[in-house]
Amino acid sequence: MARRPASSPRAQGADRQGDRYVVQLVLAGTPYHKPTHVAGSNAVGLDLGPASIAIVPREGEARLEPLCAELRPDARAMRRLQRRMERQRRAANPEHYDERGRPRKRGKGAKGWKQSRSYQVSRRRLAARERRLAAHRKSLHGRLAHQIAAVGHTIITEKISYQGWQKRYGRSVGLRAPGMLIDHLRRTVASTGGILHEVPTRTTKLSQFCHGCGRFVKKPL
Q1: Is 189 exposed, middle or buried (0-12, 13-18, 19+ CB in 10 A)?
Q2: Which residues have CB under 8 Å from 21's CB, separation 6+?
Q3: Largest Cα–Cα distance in the chain?
Q4: How far apart are CA 121 and CA 9, in angstroms?
Q5: How far from each other are the two terminal CA atoms of the chain, in whole angstroms?
Q6: What crossing angle do the helices spanning 75-92 and 117-151 adopt, rounded to 10°?
Q7: Tell me: the pLDDT tens digits for 143-180?
Q8: How far apart are the C-alpha atoms of 102 and 109, rounded to whole Å?
Q9: Residues 175 and 134: beta-carbon distance below 8 Å
């Protein structure tokens, strides 16, 4: 059991946390499944995007759903906290900036960055908001993973480079975390006796395959 160090009264009033205790319990065996989480027997194909997912069962109706539609962070409040932290960091470390306000390059003998009490309070406030956002996102991913597992026990999806998505769709991927959803789905399906197949897109070329003639036809993006 790990105990978080006690913070000052001012910090406790800022992030409303105080002391937090974390307990981790590890058990061996088959995980418990709620009666409502029934595993399906169908095969399901997934088309995952940065902000949406298409669920296509072998038998049944396909559907397109947005990822984490209920996740609406207060971006304005978080930006205000980030700007406040930047002002507090500059005020406490004027030697790390040049006359034009640009950060200086740190040499071998450079001193570390100082953190004021107000900066630590702002940092804890931002961390509390991000922690609540991550917990909500994890809950939404778990709900969607159980919905997909209820349709089928064999999941087929493309093997995607999520690092490449981060470069192009950084804000959307950072908010919805599609790679985390696949990891959660892989554990959920494995616990029910199913399997998740990740098909490599470089060899299959799914978007260029013609089901009519059975050949690969190049198409513009």
Answers
A1: buried
A2: 1, 2, 3, 4
A3: 72
A4: 11
A5: 52
A6: 150
A7: 999 999 999 889 999 898 888 898 899 999 999 999 99
A8: 19
A9: no
Please give the helix or strand (H or E) that residue 79 lies within, else none.
helix 75-92
pTM reported for the whole predicted model: 0.75
DSSP letter for 200, please. E
Q: Which two tokens stand for residue 99?
A: 């006359």
Distance CA 120, CA 96 (A): 19
**Across the strands, what pairs with 197?**
156
Secondary element (H or E) of residue 175? helix 170-176
The dihedral region occupied by 154, where left means phi > 0, alpha psi between -120 and 50, and beta the remainder, is beta
Helix, strand and coil percent figures for the chain, each rounded to 5: 45, 20, 40
Tokens of 163: 């690092």
Q: Return the closest-CA partner of residue 141 out of 176, 190, 173, 191.
A: 176
Q: What is the pLDDT of residues 38-86, one digit of tens each?
A: 888 889 999 999 999 999 998 888 999 999 999 989 999 999 999 999 9
The pair of structure tokens assigned to 29 is: 């065996």
